[in-house]
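# step 3/5: fold
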Amino acid sequence: MKDDSILDMSFYLDSEHGPPEGDFFPVLSREDEQKIEAEEMPEILNILPLRNTVLFPGVIIPITVGRDKSIKLIKDVYRGKRIIGVVAQKDPDIEDPSPEDLFQVGTAAFIIKLLQMPDGNNTVIIQGRNRFSIDEMITTDPYFTAKVSIQKTIPSIVTKSREFKATVDSVKDLAIQIVKQSPNIPTEASFAIQNIESPNFLLHFICSSLNISLEDKQKLLEINKFDVLSGKVLEFLTKELQMIELKNQIQKKVKKDIDKQQRDYLLNMQLKTIQDELGGAPHEQEIKELSEKAVKKLWNDEVKGVFEKELQKLQRMNPSAAEYSIQMNYLEYLVELPWNEYTKDNNSLKFAEKKLDKDHFGLEKVKQRIIEFLAVLKMKNNKNAPILCLVGPPGVGKTSLGKSIAESLGRKYIRISLGGLRDEAELRGHRKTYIGAMPGRIIQSLKKTKTANPVFVLDEIDKVSGNNINGDPQAALLEILDPEQNTNFHDNYLEIDFDLSKILFIATANTLSTIHPALRDRMEIIEVDGYTNEEKVEIAVRHLIPKQMDQHGLKLKDLLFSKQIISKIVEDYTRESGVRALEQNIAKMIRYYIRFIAENEPFDKKIKLDDIEKALGLRKFQKDRTFSTKQIGVVTGLAWTMYGGEILFIEASMSKGKGGLTMTGNLGDVMKESATLAYEYIKSHSTLLNINQKMFEENNIHVHVPEGATPKDGPSAGITMFTAMASVFGNKKVNPKIAMTGEITLRGKVLPVGGIKEKILAAKRAGVNEIVLSKDNQKDVVDIEEYYTKGIQFHYIQEMKDVLQWVM
């Protein structure tokens, strides 16, 4: 569709001789201006709507007429007085405007010439005469006709003042400067401006040429005071000149690099042409793929804005530059991370219970607590889920419990081993500016799983290093494992907050003593205790043997393990709370027989007791480590280690001397203090214990804990050391089938200790049937399942001296 618009051509007045050579700018003289001002205009004018331009009085412009109504109007008027009214459209995109789509102030125009162009268009050269305002629209068909009021320019004393003349001179100077500094404006324009005598026409001429919006030009047309108009024009020219000067400054700055840029541009264009011939540039395909992936993402406005900004930066980069690959890796991480993408949970608690029972034998209280946890998770719809921390000795199934929870919920499973983690950047990532930068392991794992709500197992959290030269990894875990903070987890590489609150974090640890207190406070502790020998046998039958047979390429019928055989392996070849060593010995047994199967040699599929020693060697542990007979100065104690419960022996002997106390066995400070406390208590209460005071002055006492290569520490052996010394001083034998544990004080009190369940298991493994504990530990024993304590008699004491009635 043709438009009524300003033609980019040199217009002229002498149509009979055609256009003159070069550019021609018509200049209005003062006399012409006075004639136009005095000219009588009709009160009713035919209105011609114009697109994208405003006609000012005195200014001559060519327009192309394309609309049917406009063509008819021009032809009808051209035969008469050639006077029309020209009004600008408010919206130039409207093809058939209504009266409401036109401005109310326009310019009466005289049609100088109507030309038929070679391309068939009609070109009309018109000259502005007087401004008018539309009072009433009379007709709209076949074209607009309106009753108008001619607006004469209001004479003003100011226009004759020095200030007005100075303003007009400034307008003229600025216009000439703009012409000189603008390469797109012909230099003849400055000659035309210099030769304009009339200040009024000068202002209208410049208004018509200003590079401003249609609305601004219309506002200038509606100003009928030349002093006000001159100020507005000066303001626009000043802004235009400043813009031109700024552009010139920028061009001068970049001109130094123009040669290199042109060279790079030419080379890149040649490279692009070659790549197009070979099937397209690889980097363009990569950018296209990134854009396609971004459309499907469910990210928020912040992430979307960052991606679009960084993508635009990538498009401006040279693909051969080193920064290009860094930027590409960053954008790939943004589009591949699971922003607001979650898997649907299976909230069936019965299914979860069956799954836990199938994967883990025993651990009834632990499984019950996990089911309660999943029930809370279901009710809260996974909002601010607590952080579980499974604490227990190695090999009891802490990590596999996390995997079972993931499978019961139907979520993805991620495991990160934190053992020995020293660098905070392993969790928070490195900044993009570093060479080889990458996100932390949390974000990397989420990228692999493609979901933002997996089950995340943080293994060995008790072995994370503290503050060091590479930061504090434990402090980074504070944010990750705090439900109030991890909604906005900040990774240094992404530099955008990522929501970790929907992740189900499960930490595992062997001990709580090495975990930072603030970190421990953010987790809910669930203690996973060791197994009894009976439980280990069942675990081997249900899980370990089928697993190892499958890994060695055998079927269950190819080799038969009886429960008696498994029990023998547990008692003679393992000494642990878990079942890891048991699984290793079962694998060793299978490897012993698999050579016969591989060579098709005959063998008995049913394993016998005699075959165990052939496959596993001589037994490593005695079933009963306690002494069979009563002895003086030898007492059975119970200890807790990070690997479970253990029994230990405290030995004491007396020799001639001057009352010295010697301690051996690689003891820690706390254990040495317990021995000193026991010795001082016996000395101060010798009468109560029926011990002659001279024995302390004439004899030395030596306390030893066997297995001196193993470091030993803690307060639990206090009551054991007291009993050993009392046995020596009183020359009384101690029952080896009674074990004991408890901390002592100088006042003779017995204080409670921890790890009771592990110590009970160690006592049962060693054949101990009586245990002496602090009265305050009775609540811990009551809380332990009955089958753990079955066959053991407990004696609860509050005073140190009370232990002697049970063991001597």
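# step 4/5: annotate
Residues 261-336 form one domain.
# step 5/5: archive (pending)
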